[in-house]
Amino acid sequence: MDRPTMSIILPVFNEEETLPELDRRLQGLLGELGETWEVLFVNDGSRDKSLPMLKEMCAREPRYRLLSFARNFGHQAAITAGVDRAEGEAVVIMDADLQDPPEVVRDMIAKWREGFDVVYGVRKKREGETWFKLVTASLFYRLLRSMIRIEIPIDAGDFRLMSRSVVLSLRALRETHRFVRGMVAWVGFRQTAVYYDRPARFAGETKYPFRKMLKFALDGIASFSTVPLRIATWLGIGAGLVGIGAAGWAVWTRIFNGETVPGWTTIMIAVSLGSSAQLLMTGILGEYVGRTYEEVKRRPLYVVAEEVNLAREERR
Ligand code: UDP
Ligand code: MG
Asked: Is the pTM of this model over 0.70?
């Protein structure tokens, strides 16, 4: 089988309402592009009609391919499966809810032809998102950037085009807790941005409830930074200095003023602040220890139950 020029990866989790429109928009775009292509749908354990709909789409269009997971492994795992199996010279990761407009792919290809290896989409405007999501997302990216050494672009999601060199490098990173946009930044190569207005979801609701968002944010920080662990050291040094100062002052007043410091309140405050800091740091430590445990198990990142229109898996 000849390698297509373009692969488009689409993670799908309960997207029955958007699939027909997605199909239409993809056909429109791919018809116009005049490139050889494949579309790789990754069904991430959908519980609605997405799977039969995808199968039906694949039966009609041989350039549609489908990987179907045995259960819901999460968005980042679905992207990974796509990256593992995409054959194209250029590989695009896109959301299935049409929040990443297929038409932006045209600009990405143009940049790729200019010689860039990664072209990521930066959202100028975001419609239909709650202010809570906008504020937390913006704070998160700024916090993350302050803690890590690699350049992770602000306001960019996973919508991006990657050259085959980048895809092959990414396949070598098998960590369990995955923050794909950080991993792409980590591999390097020539990277650039295209800007677009991010529309609201076409239909249905977000598959990233707060719980998943929080997990995702923690994965992002913990897999690229150990700064939180160092906070313990600084906190310890700070508390030590305050302690020495307070002790000096207590001895001083005892000797020169002959009075002891009355201090139930101060002791209570110091003890409760001190113990909460310790518990917090134990928690942070636990996050890292837990992740280390998950990583050493080296479980596969996903389990595929079914494949349609796909060549047999190449041995890595
Ligand atoms: N998704 C997935 N598995 C999940 C959650 C989401 O494959 O567990 C897919 C979903 O179908 C969509 C993309 O990941 O194609 C992004 O999800 P969503 O649009 O819900 O996220 P948001 O845009 O709200 O951040
Ligand atoms: Mg979305």
From this structure: yes
